Amino acid sequence: MKEKLLKEELITVNMPKKIIIGDPSYYEDETLSKYKLDRLTYTKTFRGKLDWKCHVILKQTYTEDENIQYKTNSINLVCSADDELIELVKKDCCYNYIKVKDRYIGVDTAEYFFAIDNNDTMIQTGSDGYIATILEFYKGNKLLAIKINLDFGDVLDYEECKSRVQYLFNKNFE
Predict the structure, then answer these.
(1) What are φ and ψ of residue 118, in 5° steps?
(2) In which element (H, E) is residue 166 found?
(3) Do 37 and 26 touch, CB atoms closer than 8 A?
């Protein structure tokens, strides 16, 4: 498999107060226990993080895999109060004293609900499977940083993805 980065744009936004990611069918399924719903989706409220910065990186990648070629769009959301840690986390690195908790979020309906504070949208991915990797970086019990890699799939074109990210975060790319 061969990948090539086609486009990449970054905006710095205010730290969200709340992030929600999940397959809408999971929220509608009344048979799911709260425990199971929490394991299948991601809902995080951030309190006391007013000094945190948040980098949103929108990417388009071209992939060749045997006889298949396709473009996909994704975002990386990297948040922390520490600028140096943000740069390390963006490169998938961190200090050895930091504990990393990882989570994978999937979908069964080829779409997911994505909300930042009071703004939300539905993202059609074109397929089911894993759509998000969430890494939380801790020192003891203190959350130091978070990184969310979120796949937008290949259904939406790059400009539509960009438009939705700008809407969710109330900020335009420069």
Answers:
(1) -95, 5
(2) helix 158-169
(3) yes
